[in-house]
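The instructor's notes for this session suggest beginning with a concrete chain rather than abstract definitions. Hand out the sequence below and ask the class to guess, before any prediction is shown, which regions might be ordered.
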Amino acid sequence: MATIYRKQPRVPEASQQAISAVMARIAQLSPVEFADMQELLDLYHQTGSGDQDHAGVAAAIQELLYPQGLTATVDPSAVISPQTRAKLQRYQAQVGSAIRQRREALNVTQQQLAAKAAIQQSHLSRLENGQHRASGRTMYRIAKALRINLNLLDPGFDD
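After discussion, reveal the predicted structure:
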C-alpha cells in the first residue's frame, strides 16, 4: 500500500508563535485546570458557532489560559453603544443583587464567600455592586459556593 503525503499548508510565522504560546501555557496548567480545559473544549465542540454559549465557552477557555487577561485592550466605548452599555450595567446590577441576596440569606460574609469561591473579596464586592462582570468560570465558582444553580444567579446561564 502506497503512503500518500499531502502538502501541509504554510502557517504564517505569527500564527506559529501564537500556537506555540498557547501550547506552552497548556503545559503549565495544573491537573485541575487541565481537567477544566478538557471539559470546556468538549462544550466548545458541542456548541455551534451561532450558539450564544459558544462565545461564552470561548471566553472561559481564554480566561483559563490567561487569567490576567491578554495584553491587547479594546476601548469598550468604541464597540458598545450607550444603550447596550446601559443594558449591560442593569444586567450586572441584577446579577450582583442576586449574589448578595443569596449570600446574606446564608449568613455568609463577603470574605467567607470569596474564600470558598477562590476569588478576592474586593472582586466579589465589585460584582455585588454591579461594577464588574464576572466570567463564566467565576460565576460557576460563586454559585457552587452558594449552593445554588448558576441560572438562579445569572439568568444568562442555562444549567
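Then share the key points. Residues 13-65 form one domain. DSSP finds nine helices and no strands in the chain.
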